[in-house]
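>> received
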Amino acid sequence: MNSSICAVIKTDKIAEFAHRSGFCRRSSKLKPEAFIDTLVFNSIDHQLSLQDCCDDLIKQNDKPLSKVGLHKRFNESSVEFMKLVLAEQMATKLVIYNHDIWQPFSRVLITDSCKFCLPDEYKESYPGYGGAVSNPLMNIQYSFDLKNGDWENLELTKATKNDQSYSKKTAGRIAKDDLHIRDLGYVTMAYLRGVAESKAFFLNRLQPKWKPVDKATGKVIDWSLLYERMQANKQVCFETEIILDKGKNALECRLIVVPVAEQISAERIRKAQKQAKSRGRELSEEYKERCRFSVFITNVDQAIFKSTDVIELYRLRWQIELIFKSWKSLLNLRRVKPVKKERFECMLLAKFIWILINWKIFRCLDAAIKKRTENMPALIGSSLNKPNYRHTH
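>> returned
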């Protein structure tokens, strides 16, 4: 059998994942590549029944497998197996460049997450923020090592375990000389201090509520004054040393500030005002002035990373964000019929894998449909026509 998945992942790699996950522990009628092929390439727009899967497996292998037997194969090991395949595909779709800049670091880890609404039947496994009355939410946590070209972690978690909780949980994984590039949701002062104390490095955006103090002047950064000065001097980038927090918790690092286009800052303010209004609050003038900039912080020495390097490196994290956005746009998970939890998770992971295999097609179509500014990742359109699923790679 020449399985479709073998066209994108080597058979020995699939076998390695199957044994590592426990999917294959002994001789079995169900080959790991056939299991993937059935879930990934048969359908993306309707849900396969157990009988559908069994029929397809017979066509591939000429070996019958009962519905009961297949039902039992949807377990924690099969979920872990599909996660390994998904992580492998994500790793192949991330653009890695400028390897020389990674030299001072043991690992360069990009971390991001994405939340998905699920059918009501999965409330117990994936509760939403509002308890029993809210929609179920799944949170996917993913971390990729840019330097070594390998994934570090992929987890399906409850949305109630937010990114800051994940940062706390994974603090023990931070090793000396790591560089961690994380989304704003993960960033706390405890996280930054943990990175520094581990003799590792961080590159993040600055939390809006934080008030950085310019180390040279001892004054809090005045965003309005800074914008006027940069406009007058036609500066495209500003950098200074800052101090975050106070006393024994004080942390010194670099601040890199880049002005954004007016339409971007206006959109930021519009979204923030909408959110603030829903909570009975108003935006401060300081917050509005901050919206004029993209603001980054890092403890990497300037001799290693110039300001332009910092900006380019952070944009790499948007690659994962772009993948997540495509998943949300192309999948209608609310239409899924309730099935065994592990079977649903395998089906979901299979849909993600299918999108990644067709990644180049979606990127080309998206580029033709929409043009966005260089400051934001493109969104995959939700109205894309779906090609023939089994034969499109």
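>> Residues 206-305 form one domain.
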